[in-house]
Give the backbone structure.
Amino acid sequence: MARRQEPIWALGAMSGTSLDGVDAALVLTDGVTVFERGRSDYRPYSDDETRVLRAALGRWPGPGLEAAQEVIERAHLELLSQFPEAELVGFHGQTLAHEPRGRGTHQLGDGAALAQALGRPVVWDFRSTDVELGGEGAPLAPFYHWACARGLGASGPLAILNLGGVGNLTWVDPASEAPEAPGALLAFDTGPANAPLNDLLSERRGLSYDRDGALAAEGQVVDGALELFLEEGYFLKMPPKSLDRDDFSVMLDLVRELDDADAAATMTAMAAAAVMRGVEHCPTPPERLLVTGGGRKNPVMMAMLAAGLDCPVVPVEEAGLDGDMLEAEAFAYLAVRVLYGLPTSCPTTTGVGAAVGGGEISRP
Ligand SMILES: Nc1ncnc2c1ncn2[C@@H]1O[C@H](COP(=O)(O)OP(=O)(O)OP(=O)(O)O)[C@@H](O)[C@H]1O
Ligand SMILES: CC(=O)N[C@H]1[C@@H]2OC[C@@H](O2)[C@@H](O)[C@@H]1O[C@H](C)C(=O)O
């Protein structure tokens, strides 16, 4: 067995598809085991910053991305400079476009400039190598989900679901020796989660999201729209598979004629149904589904999942994890794996031909 490396305090930073802000979290790890979790913090984007980022989505390659790049770099520098104890930084950046078999995957933000500004080594551009080698380049949190499942001492397979702008699911066999071992993981994006409903409510009501599922709780799910949604070819595709934020624009078209409450109920049901389809792909039924990301705070979404699945559906907090910071922690963990030459994705997480380590290291 390879010699274990020194654990280090790494700081992970994630700016997700919801465009609401940057999360940062410290993790003490050797890239295999998580020994401790440290401080974390969140730096929200102002409404103006969110508008600038929203306008940049899909516009890669530029020109005209300077303002968005400035928002990303300023917000990250403000937040990450509050963590002088970090020995290494994992910087995801902001995904502007994700088309693994088209124009590629692009995360906005210059990690080399950030390394200079912070005076710390920064690992960044985590997804490109995987895509260049034929993988989806996403999801990447699954290797960290493996470490979380191992840390919980789970006896049987479990699944971790992230409900962000997009949804992604990881099935883990916690008895596996390494995340890249055959049969250890199966991961993929389930479908749209919160992003399309956020966009609808922003357009119709100037709201950023359906807080606590209040609007969805008032409406009725329109079965015809839900059935049409589930006819999308994406659900027939075998995993691994991944999505760009706005790949499911059909969802907005399907609810166009509905009132706000019915649209919210139907879109919430669509996101939940996409997860149920996803769970069918798991190699064995998970003993429980641990839910991370903002969608776990939506009781309507959680009730729909619980009603449609045969296993308990609980927020990751029930397992002692922090669902607001799990993705930031994942990029801290992945940064250490890159530093130590360990893989960050494999055939069952991104479909890449063999286990690969993505990520570039920039030193100050
Ligand atoms: N109390 C709540 N009630 C309902 N929905 C909520 C609540 N809190 C957060 N959300 C939803 O979760 C979203 C934020 O989720 P999260 O921060 O996990 O997304 P992200 O990390 O940006 O996305 P991704 O994981 O796709 O990159 C919000 O935009 C909102 O739709
Ligand atoms: C290309 C990209 O940024 N994808 C995100 C997005 O948000 C959720 C889902 O789609 C997931 O595939 C991924 O993020 C998480 C952090 C991941 O890579 O695991």
The CA atoms of residues 77 and 114 lie 7 Å apart. The pocket of AH0 (ligand 2) is lined by residues 16-17, 95, 98, 105, 138-141, 162, 164-166, 168, 189, 242, 327 (CB under 6 Å).
